[in-house]
Known about the structure:
The chain is an all-alpha fold and 234 residues long. The chain is 69% helix and 0% strand. It has two domains: 3-67; 90-230, no CATH class.
Amino acid sequence: MGxxxxxxxxxxxxxxxxxxxxALEEEAAVRATTLAKIAKSWAAALILAVxxxxxxxxxxxxxxxxxxxxxxxxxxxxxxxxGPGVALGADTxxxxxxxxxxxxxxxFGEAGDGVKALSRATESYIRNCGCxxxxxxxxxxxxxxxxxxxxxxxxxxxxxxxxxxVAQAARRVRAARTKAEALHALHDAIVIIHKDVELVxxxxxDHPRLTRGGDFVAETLNVASLALEKGGGx
Length: 234
């Protein structure tokens, strides 16, 4: 009889303990959820701050020019004598007036890379400066040939006369009485370069990089031919 109240009290204590444990678990879950929300809010705020900072920097750079120069529009120069049409920026117009700006090449390294650099610079000048007259094309090719002469001695023997081929084409273009004659001169030069490239391939077919110099020169002559064909005039 005396054990009944004790057992009842023990049961009540167990019930309260279970309820307390459940309450603690619920409180812990609520705290974890709250902390997770706070963490997400801080992360979102940090991302927003970084985005705002980047946006501000981009705006400042676009407003101040970023310490550099805006790209000049491509097209013929209205004042440089290279053809009518779109006016260029001052820097570009000035460079167009003096001819292609060719890089100074080292005397070491692969010669094909040097020819590529000279070719790309000449092609860029012809395209961006509206170089579409016989006089302009001839002047550009003269300067190109002069620079090529510093590189071609390091090319395969069959391609070492490229500079002379380009120089001769420039002379013929300048002296041509019609656009057709000038285009024919460029076509003849391209044919000669292609024949020289084929000679290199026939002798050493396992090393295609040996012909890169000739391929770049032929491409530049073709760019000049297309420009002259679309433009024309003396």
